Amino acid sequence: MNDVISQYSVKEQPYYRSVTDEVALYEAAYSVRMPMMLKGPTGCGKTRFVEYMAWKLGKPLITVACNEDMTASDLVGRFLLDASGTRWQDGPLAIAARHGAICYLDEVVEARQDTTVVIHPLTDARRVLPLEKKGELIQAHPDFQLVISYNPGYQSLMKDLKQSTKQRFGALDFNYPDHEIETEIVSHETRVSQDVASKLVSIAERARNLKGHGLDEGISTRMLIYAGSLIASGVDPMSACRMTLVRPITDDPDMRDALDAAVSTFF
Ligand code: ADP
């Protein structure tokens, strides 16, 4: 591995609790370098899963959090001006394609339309990335793989991936895991007892049932980990839950009362 890419290697094994057969399916997909789409709500383990898979496969991982201002140049690269003139700088996608990393585009639908166009030639048999401004065609390294995440809940008619893009990916569904598994994850990540972790998961389950009835998104595993970390550091559970589970997701007074009541049922 050369210097450019070695900084992206996943050195320590990330903790990942598998939920079904996603690890084996991903390995099979990687073996044929199939582009993958990880579908599911925010904070349910998609990023952790890719980190774990990159570590397991021994491949570097380049993660890009996409946002609405992101353009194709941010991904592919651009000419920079410096004292000696102009020089080309590869963007994260070009680095991954050139040197053989797994490139994870988190929430790619957020990025501008031109970004999804540049990934197309990398996702079919050609496996190329045209650097139009530079006049270069990168033939992707044999180890390169493209992975995107997609939250089906957020998409609107204005902002969705086109069918022609979706059909270029294999997809794995992610969701908040079953009670026992999520309890195990929260307890492992925060060091709170199984009992406290289980109560946190129960609060989340109540909130998730309110999704679509006044809540846009339920309480995620990530939020439970915030709550657990505060509790583990000595914060009173009720205050910890209010701060990390209730206040961030709603401003509606009735919904806050309903969620606070759910918290006080368990703590
Ligand atoms: P996403 O990418 O779906 O938004 P993340 O992968 O960042 O979510 O997950 C949020 C946090 O939840 C992670 O940092 C990790 O601590 C925890 N987590 C969720 N699912 C798992 C899992 N299956 N195994 C281990 N940790 C998990």
From TrEMBL:
Taking every annotated instance into account, which residue ranges of this chain make up the domain ATPase dynein-related AAA? 36-169
GO molecular function terms noted in the UniProt entry? ATP binding; ATP hydrolysis activity
- Keyword vocabulary terms for this entry: ATP-binding, Nucleotide-binding
The UniProt entry, under Pfam families, shows: AAA_5, CbbQ_C
Q: Does the keyword Membrane apply?
A: no
SUPFAM superfamilies, per database record:
P-loop containing nucleoside triphosphate hydrolases
Point out the signal peptide segment.
none
Q: Which residues form the CbbQ/NirQ/NorQ C-terminal domain?
A: 182-265
**InterPro entries tied to this protein:** ATPase_dyneun-rel_AAA (IPR011704), CbbQ/NirQ/NorQ/GpvN (IPR050764), CbbQ_C (IPR013615), P-loop_NTPase (IPR027417)
PANTHER family with a match to the protein in the record: DENITRIFICATION REGULATORY PROTEIN NIRQ, MOXR FAMILY PROTEIN
User: Hey, which family's this protein in?
Assistant: Belongs to the CbbQ/NirQ/NorQ/GpvN family.
Q: State what protein this is by name.
A: Nitric oxide reductase NorQ protein
Report the source organism.
Sulfurirhabdus autotrophica
Organism lineage reads as: Bacteria, Pseudomonadati, Pseudomonadota, Betaproteobacteria, Nitrosomonadales
